[in-house]
Amino acid sequence: MKPETASPYGHFDDATREYVITRPDTPLPWLNYLGQDEFFGLCTNTAGGYSFWKDAKLRRLTRYRYNNVPYDLGGRYFYVNDGGEVWNPGWKPVKAKGVKYECRHGLGYTRIVGERDGLEVETLFFVPPGENLEVWKVTVRNKSAQRKTPKLFSYQEFCFFEALNDMTNYQRTYSIGEVEVEGSAIYHKTEFRERRNHYTLFACTRPIAGFDTSRDAFVGIHEGLHEAKVPFAGQATNSVAFGWNPIGSHQINLDLAPGAEESFAFVLAYVEQGEAPKFDAPFVMNKSVGRAIVEKYSAPGAVDAALANLKAYWDALLGNFQVDCPNEHAQRMANTWNQYQCMATFNMSRSASMYETGIGRGMGFRDSNQDLLGFVHMIPSRARERILDIAATQLSDGTCYHQYQPLTKKGNADIGGDFYDDHLWLVLSTCAYIKESGDTSILQAPCAYADKAYENVVTDTLLDHLETSIAYTMKKRGPNGLPLIGHADWNDCLNLNCFSTEPNESFQTAGDVRDSKAESVMIAGLFLYAAREMAGLYEHLDRNTDAARMHGHYAEMLETVERVSWDGAWYTRAYAADGSVVGSHTNAEGKIFIESQGWCVLGGAGANNGRARQAMESVHQHLYTKNGVVLQQPAYSAYDLRLGEVTSYPPGVKENAGIFSHNNTWIHLAWCQLGEGDRALEYYLSICPSAKQDQIDTYRGEPYVYAQMIAGKDAPCFGEAKNNWLTGTAAWTFVVVSQGLLGIKPDYAGLRVAPCIPKDWPGFTVTRRFRGDTYAITVRNPDGVSKGVKALRLNGTEIDPTKPIPVVGDGSTHSVDVVLG
Ligand code: BGC
Ligand code: NOJ
């Protein structure tokens, strides 16, 4: 296999859109997500992980112990007892010798197959679209020449729904666990007798030979999962948990002739039973909703039909954007994995991954607004709903709750607000939504401010929120005329008002921002971008006075940026609370930062005076490495309480000169804006996971999804990825590849085509669904240029290449021919 496609641990199967892992001992657990709507599961390549409904903190259904030893232990386990020999198809937890293993992480499903001694056990985990449950399909095949009578034991641990309580409050939790067993179904109903109206169902679609619901009975008190008592004994105990730790385990006895196989399934469901009636008898829960679920999935063909739905679901979603281009990595990521990761970040924000425990952070204000940019082309209606949810956590003074819980949609008071970039991202997500969908009605959608949510009649609209956001930045400016920073801007670790000397406080919340003078150049650049977006929106709405007002704000901020933020060869980063400059050649460390170069250039600063190009050349000279662009240089070597958390990290990691993939994407877009297609692709590939397979033992992360951070050149582990999956990199990279490099940009009046590609690309094709039509776009590059469209034809007719392709709107496919030059 070509090195572009394979690593020593596995390979891409582009045809099936799977990453195939061929040995279980990957450099780190490699994760996949199950679920697309409201029920989600984390599933690693050894079947580790857990499931939850909507909210990993408040509705966690199965239990997982983070930072375990090994890292990943506990999950959707099957123990096979084949003539006394015990093993797992996913290798863990027994890790028996001689198990042939393959894991295929696909779109919304994970298939793990183990084979030992002629017995093959295939397990498949997925969440059917629109359902609040997970299906575990199992197929057992006797590939040997002898009859086999294996016993199979399912195993997973129930969580008491509220995850923090579940893992901290044992004086209570050890006494409350309750289950019921009915036929092949195990019902976890802790707290159902009091305030809950929901339970967890774990059922098998075939008759069982026994069950266990007590962890102590199944595993033992002094045993580990790798030596659990029941599977080694080969006999379930039919234990009914009373307190302690309820689990779900079914025993299946099979009798397979040589060549025979048997398939069956398990369902793990979140069930809201309702109140009518809650109980059939004292202590006997009304299980009618759960029973109906078991019945549905026990019907022949039901599981395979659900799987077919899932495949059709993803085919349709990805069909909205497909490219055929000369670079294998860009093509693979854009067509499949990048879009797939965008769905995960849209659903999870920064809540639940191998690095986020699902407890600390819910939906981030700035994070979720940015996540929308890579998702909106897939399901615009969900983006619409999300925008309104996020906006409703803004306060009437313009500040925003920094995070909110997905279940309650209420702002999180612990972290609060006062991150003075947050509100501006709402402008970007709203404009992206309208450009994609054409739906300007969202602007008039009623949307209360979080501090006015008690009002019965909501008179504020989303457009009011956008105006409030712009006005807030104009108002909140410091001595140099730049936006104040608050607790931090996009860089959560640039805490210019924190001055923390107390190790037990959070850098993000400590410090008084009220009378601060600390200013952010990055917010100024972001503001330029947002003000221009607002002006464009008003022009689209024919509200020219409002557009002119926005252009006025833009001009004022641009003048300020150029006057106070140019350092000679790049834009500075900030002014600290004491008025000193941050990110200047006059600083000993942290002389040049990435974020202000990216945002000033994207905001249009330096466009007419050569500074944009010079700033980008400085990025190339001081910050670029083969593994991506480091956040700043030189890295901070000592804690500086004026600057906060950014100086707390060892040099080369996270915000202290790590390669923070998210902000790299702004540089990619800036290169595209400058017409530098070769640089743009080179930079794009420097952080692209698919391109890391030949250095995977250094990189360590999943080669199919972006990492939040890759260790920078100052770190001993230069090139090592961390915090994979939940990062704004996913959305922004999709913007880079689809709108920057390939140049297919949604605009109010239609799709714009303005590619910026490497000069040696002969061309590419894109299929793009847009407002109900399909555009089959062919781009040719006969003159070997990076940028510039010299001819554009729609369905064979020449049209103006400087304008968007008009929306045809007849639901059919249109050919678009583009000639660069
Ligand atoms: C991390 C940031 C993150 C912040 C807020 C910091 O420790 O370095 O990347 O945004 O925490 O949770
Ligand atoms: C991760 C956070 O989720 C995001 O909000 C922040 O912008 C980056 N870290 C940079 O600090």
Automatic annotation (TrEMBL):
Residues 313-743 form the Glycosyl hydrolase 94 catalytic domain. Keywords: Glycosyltransferase, Transferase. It comes from the Bacteria. Its EC number is 2.4.1.20. GO terms for biological process: carbohydrate metabolic process. Residues 17-278 form the Glycosyl hydrolase 94 supersandwich domain. GO terms for molecular function: carbohydrate binding; cellobiose phosphorylase activity. Pfam families: GH94_b-supersand (PF06165), Glyco_hydro_94 (PF17167). SUPFAM superfamilies: Galactose mutarotase-like, Six-hairpin glycosidases. The keyword Transferase applies. Gene3D superfamilies: 1.50.10.10, Glycoside hydrolase, family 65, N-terminal domain, Maltose phosphorylase, domain 3, mpn423 like domain. PANTHER family: CELLOBIONIC ACID PHOSPHORYLASE, CELLOBIONIC ACID PHOSPHORYLASE-RELATED. This is Cellobiose phosphorylase.
